[in-house]
Write a structure and sequence with these properties.
Blueprint (H helix, E strand, L loop, with lengths): L1 H24 L1 E9 L10 E4 L2 E6 L5 E7 L4 E6 L3 E6 L8 E2 L19 E3 L4 E3 L7 E5 L11 H8 L3 E4 L2 E4 L3 E2 L2 E2 L3 E4 L2 E3 L10 E7 L15 E6 L5
Length: about 240
């Protein structure tokens, strides 16, 4: 009798867990419209969910449709030229974006008080507590990096989801219809798509911008951005 009761309890627990798993994997459809400051539709804007690119983009009327997991919490819009905007999903299935109501985040707009941490996002710095996207930072002044052979070695070993091939860097999830999209490399303000042939001892910091945090670079930041500051220029 006791064995039967135990089996019934286990079956009930399994049934509940299975039901919860199905609910968490269930996808919902979110639709909306993206407009610029002139109330005109924004076409080809990339839809991002929890800082990850999706295959969904806005059409000629600025409309989009994207399927997301029920556990998804944030939706973002990556545009070429207007910057980026984000919003909380909170169970909504209709989320519109208007770049005219509240301007997209631009660097240099926030005053960072002395002693308050900031994050360099390319053209300037913003308060670290307000960064909702993935920014990985390597402090080049840490002595442990002195033993690394190259900058490529530092990035590949210290940042997850990054693949280095020669002088090219690909951040996980950065791809288009033609394949992987290399990250933009910015060294002391100079941009290219190749890692510099430089010893790690000359590096002050490396910041890897993923997802919407790279949107301030426009189309060049589609594959993410590697921001490198050298000790030579930033002492």
């Amino acid at each position: 009798m006791k064995t039967k009761i135990i089996l019934l309890i286990l079956m009930a627990v399994f049934s509940i867990n299975s039901s919860n798993a199905q609910k968490s994997n269930k996808k919902v459809t979110i639709t909306g419209t993206v407009l610029n400051a002139d109330k005109s539709p924004v076409a080809n804007a990339i839809i991002m969910i929890d800082d990850q690119k999706t295959s969904s983009v806005t059409d000629a009327d600025g409309k989009y449709k994207v399927k997301v997991k029920s556990s998804a919490s944030r939706i973002g819009i990556f545009t070429f030229g207007l910057g980026t905007k984000e919003d909380s999903i909170k169970g909504r299935t209709q989320i519109d974006f208007d770049f005219g109501t509240t301007t997209a985040q631009k660097p240099g707009e926030q005053n960072i008080a002395p002693g308050e941490k900031g994050v360099n996002t390319g053209y300037g710095s913003i308060k670290q507590k307000n960064v909702t996207t993935n920014v990985n930072k390597i402090d080049g002044t840490n002595k442990k990096y002195a033993s690394y052979r190259s900058i490529a070695d530092m990035i590949q070993r210290e940042v997850s989801g990054v693949k280095v091939s020669g002088s090219s860097v690909v951040i996980q999830g950065s791809a288009d219809l033609f394949g992987d999209v290399p990250a933009l490399i910015v060294v002391d303000g100079n941009a290219s798509y190749e890692l510099p042939d430089m010893s790690p001892i000359y590096v002050k910091s490396i910041e890897v911008l993923k997802g919407t945090s790279a949107a301030i670079y426009g189309s060049r930041g589609y594959g993410g951005v590697i921001v490198i500051k050298t000790k030579i220029q930033n002492e």
